[in-house]
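Data deposition worksheet. Section B asks for the primary sequence of the deposited chain exactly as it was used as input, without tags or linkers unless they were present during the calculation. Section C holds the resulting structure in token form. Section D is free text for depositor observations; keep each observation to a single sentence. Incomplete worksheets are returned to the depositor.
Section A, Depositor: J.P.
Section B:
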Amino acid sequence: MRNLVVVLMGGLSGERKISFLTGKACLNALKKKRYKVKELDAKGHFVKELKKLKPKIVFNALHGKYGEDGFVQSILESLKIPYTHSGVLSSSLAMDKELSRSIFKKNKIKVPKYFLLQKGYEKNFKKKIKDKKIRFPIVIKPINEGSSLGVYICKNEMQFYKNYKKLKKDYDRILVEEYIPGKEIQAAVMGKKALGAIELVPKRKFYDYKAKYSSSAKTKHIMPASLSTKKYKEVMFLAKRAHNLLGCRGVTRSDFRFFKNKFYLLEINTQPGMTKLSLVPEIANYYSIKFEDLIDWMVRDASNNRWKNFIESFYL
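Section C:
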């Protein structure tokens, strides 16, 4: 048996349930690889428990707030416990859709037209949408959630105000963006290598929470994505570029829309799902990387000082 690996899962975000699915799958994979493992729910006094356990490595299977935004990463850095996935700064930037998009735009990666709407300043909506030359339909979403939580497609102004009213109960800042139709393409990066790209054809309006995590949604997966060789290489390049620009580590998944022969980056996920319906394991499997081997690689890639990759990214 190898030294202890603690799998952090659960937590306090809206993605708690999915985090358990990811965590259990990764836990079982590590057992198959003969690791000594223990699961830990990242709530309450989990830091105290973590100190008692003294793990050699933490596998971060958390999703959403506190697990994906640099919070738990900063705790692990302070405890000097090596951990998987991206570091503090990279996680924080990737989770903030506005900050990450500003970086992507400056580096010539196309993103949808967008603006930020602050709670209490709803009166600015009409002016902002006009200034940005955004037409309906539009998409509204929290700037710091994952798994498509709180995402609404609004066909007109009435739908916008109705859905915005729901969101502002829980969120102070909302991202408003143009709706980009076309193909839904998701590309995975593993370390320094762009792994592959998959196309999704949801039966629902878009690839929402249910489409991601429920087999009953019957989302069609096309692997590899039905793109020309040239365009497939392009989306792989863009995914790796986005990964490097934010200084990400481990595995990431970038979400694109492909419309009129152009790719638009919607976001990059530093803690992609690892459930039986998750995309990164599916992409890896297509290229003959078994799930257990993928998880084993992620553990071997774990380290401290993962923020250094963010600094190094400026010299790539």
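Section D:
The chain is about 35% helix and 25% strand.
The domain at 4-84 is CATH 3.40.50.20 (Rossmann fold).
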